[in-house]
């Protein structure tokens, strides 16, 4: 069960945003990721949480996000469906979009999208539609990305072979591209994400 800490920052000006303390593991349904977010300060004040469960095919069985008093509960149902609850807990709005999965600031969503697509180095660039929840208000936004697996290299480590996949991810609307490095179910690097601490090796998904 990988357990560690990511630091999250603004990918443009590198302003520190949060620390994400996570653990993740395969489970009876597929894969689960749980994290608590804190301020990037010595006080480590609580900012929110992430709880994502995927099925064996990489589809989001269950998503629960908390940030700024807002809450998202969602899953895959005729596309993706969610309920967004306001900080007072008195009102809730529902949404359904013909999309493949969810995304957001958490590195968990990068792992989830890679797992859903299951690309190989010979796969053509693949387009995926996602519903994004970002910022403290967790406002939903539908977007399209294009993913391609550029390379997959195996490195020798003290804990055995470690395969690192390099993805090129493009934002279809803006044309912006960035690189994501992934080892099993742990993000090694991505825009706005740095792996600061990892207590146990990544889990290798079955082929």
From TrEMBL:
<protein>
    <submittedName>
        <fullName>Uncharacterized protein</fullName>
    </submittedName>
</protein>
């Amino acid at each position: 069960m990988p357990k560690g800490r990511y630091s999250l920052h603004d990918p443009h000006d590198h302003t520190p945003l949060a620390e994400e303390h996570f653990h993740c593991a395969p489970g009876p349904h597929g894969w689960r990721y749980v994290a608590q977010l804190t301020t990037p300060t010595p006080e480590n004040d609580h900012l929110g949480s992430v709880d994502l469960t995927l099925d064996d095919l990489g589809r989001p069985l269950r998503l629960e996000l908390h940030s700024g008093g807002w809450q998202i509960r969602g899953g895959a149902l005729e596309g993706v469906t969610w309920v967004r609850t306001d900080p007072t807990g008195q009102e809730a709005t529902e949404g359904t979009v013909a999309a493949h999965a969810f995304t957001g600031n958490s590195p968990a969503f990068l792992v989830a999208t890679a797992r859903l697509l299951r690309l190989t180095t010979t796969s053509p660039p693949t387009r995926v539609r996602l519903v994004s929840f970002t910022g403290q208000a967790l406002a939903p936004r539908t977007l399209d990305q294009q993913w391609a697996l550029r390379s997959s290299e195996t490195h020798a480590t003290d804990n055995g072979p470690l395969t690192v996949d390099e993805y090129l991810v493009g934002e279809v609307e803006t044309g912006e591209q960035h690189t994501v490095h992934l080892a099993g179910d742990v993000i090694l690097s991505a825009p706005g994400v740095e792996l600061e601490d990892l207590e146990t090796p990544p889990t290798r998904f079955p082929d």
